[in-house]
Amino acid sequence: MIKLIERAYNNKNRIAVKSEGYSYTYKTLLNKSESIAVELLAGKRDLNEQRITFLVNPSFQYVTIQWGIWRAGGIAVPLCIKHPLESIKYVLEDTDASILIYSKEYKDLIEPLFNNTNIRFIRAESFSNIFGLLPEVDIKRRAMIIYTSGTTGLPKGVVSTHKNIEAQISSLISFWGWNQSDHILNVLPMHHVHGIINVLSCALWSGACCEFLPKFNPEEIFKLFKKQEINVFMAVPTIYFKLIAYWNDLKKTEQEEIFLILKKFRLMVSGSAALPLSLHEQWEKISNHVLLERYGMTEMGMAISNPYNGKRRPGFIGQPLGNVSVRLVDENNNLVKVGEPGEIQVKGENVFNEYWNKPEATKEAFTLDGWFKTGDIAVLNNGSYKILGRNSVDIIKSGGYKISALEIEEVLRQHVNIKDCAVIGIPDEEWGEIIGVSLVLNTKEISIDNLKSWLIEKLPGYKIPKKYIIQTDLPRNTMGKVTKNELKKLFSVNIL
User: Fold this and answer.
1) Residue 281, domain member (yes or no)
2) Structural domain contains residue 179
3) 47 domain-assigned
4) What's the domain count of the chain?
5) Residue 150: what pLDDT?
6) Domain at 453, CATH number
7) Which residues of the chain have a pLDDT value below 70?
8) Model pTM score
9) Would you say residue 364 lies in a domain?
10) Is 478 helix (H, G, I), strand (E, B) or coil?
11) What is the pLDDT of residue 151?
């Protein structure tokens, strides 16, 4: 049996999930996920790694569907609830999904797909309470595909086995001191490793409680904090920025009340993007916590973390987790000296299995001796790693998302009035980076508002550029490649 699910039998009467005003025990979670698994099997003995996509809000329903897919022997493919139909279609086609489970909120969005007879559509609310035999699922089986943007432009499906997931969870359980009495608030997207592994799966592995807040709202978050049940919180820098802004507008008596409550928390973590020093300092002021920064990727879960007990250094990501090997190398894969910058490479059971149906991309992601090439540059300083940046300017980190500039460029070039373009990340205190684009036009002018409306049909909101400039040509080097670092300098003037 999958160990994450097997452990739930030891905590049957404990609260596993709080969602939409209800509390659900581990026993309820086990029963409901079994019913879903039986219905997904539809008389078969085993789904044998069929790809099962699901489009549901972060909730108890989400967890039961995820576990139901796993218990039936399928591969869980969570879809982003903010993606347009085109992005959803891409995942369905890329994975050759056999089933799409959707909740009522998304019926209108996916209705155009209903004439696709290759896919079985199941309304999430329609699952009944039935029980039956389930297959034995080996931990070496593929368990999940999460889509991540890469330097090739189109999103790649990161395939993790149950063994990979167990390794990712167990390393964090040990390093961050997870225990049964923990109660975490989950405000993160549930198609990313941060929300799925670091928050939900670690809580359920520990016999703890995971509470969902499907839509971010600073006022609601502080209301939940005031109940004094939550003692662990994890978020991206953008969320901390908005919570600080809300706190600053409160009366002094309310600020003091919140400070005393937050001070009692066991752990607070920030990740998915670099945390500005100013946010570090402001959050410590309102909570008495030095946020724990860590480093990870969809391809490997977490690999490096500041200590749970011990000094945390703002701007540093810490030390390797247990059973995770890390090295820094130069462009020739030679180890660099301590204090010199190098690419982070990782090896361990936490590292993903493959990119779905992309053998060449998978091969390129690893060295000949099996190290995963992260593409991030870091330096080792007094025993802690510090991220210096990426070896590619084509990945933008904004609000916890890793966004491919090349993917956005490909979409923009489809517009009839755009001859060429280049997309970059612009440093921003709130978002980490915001997306900027330089446009070369086929016409004299363009309406930016109309362009944004056009993009909404093509891309999720977080991938739509916020800053625009118009140029007669893009800056290039002697090889004809756009010099994006030069382009960044132009965004201080002539921004539309």
Assistant:
1) no
2) no
3) no
4) 1
5) 47
6) 3.30.300.30
7) 149-153, 391-392, 477-480, 493-496
8) 0.86
9) no
10) coil
11) 43
